[in-house]
Amino acid sequence: MNITDLDWHLYEQRDHLAERLASDVAERLQNAIESRGGATLAVSGGSTPALFFEQLSYAAIDWQKITVTLVDERFVPESHERSNAKLVKEKLLKNAAAEVRFVPLYHDTARVEEAAARSSGEVGKFDWPLDVVVLGMGLDGHTASFFPDATTLEMLLDPSTSERVLPVQAQSAGEPRLTLSLPAIVSASFLALHIEGENKRDVLEETLGELGPEFSRTPTRRVLDAATTTPHIYWAP
Ligand SMILES: O=C(O)[C@H](O)[C@@H](O)[C@H](O)[C@H](O)COP(=O)(O)O
């Protein structure tokens, strides 16, 4: 994978990026609805996507035929301030998108592994592959919840797993996580990586230049390398 194998969408301002990403995602979802009667969208959490979610919530598309889920989730209940489901419900599930079907990943189980097994079964009932997946990236090169210090990183990045959702234990993650698996992400018909700021641009360019063996590359690079369609990079300063 190198810079020319990606579709770059660069903007001067974050609000322009949010408008365009929302428009591109909405178009892909509506196209999926027109071709097969439904569409699936998986979004990431964190601090970057709020403006994009707000813009997407106004899209005039057939939201009642769309299912939204998360790329990853912290193992906390929706009432918790760190919940990605909370973020999505506050920023995306409103306006035109208010009634969309949302499938969270968190379950109130004793162990994150049990929650992963339950959500794996639930998202496994979707029409696969997903139509749209929007990823973020951390400054450590993680994407989804594929943290470089995850105890089971190679399992998380296993391209042959049949699991759709996996549990994650990683010191740097803050709490146990739930994440879509690598094949669930990279098989998306439209795969977008949404990053903002110079630091993340530098991290991305560094990871694209990695020459070491595959297993030593950052998780973001491993995902981009495994993508079945040309990944779209959305960036603003
Ligand atoms: O649960 C999460 O935190 C996200 O899904 C995660 O993968 C996120 O995309 C990156 O950590 C970037 O987060 P920021 O947007 O906060 O920089």
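^ 6-phosphogluconic acid complex. The chain is about 35% helix and 20% strand. The chain has a mean pLDDT of 96.
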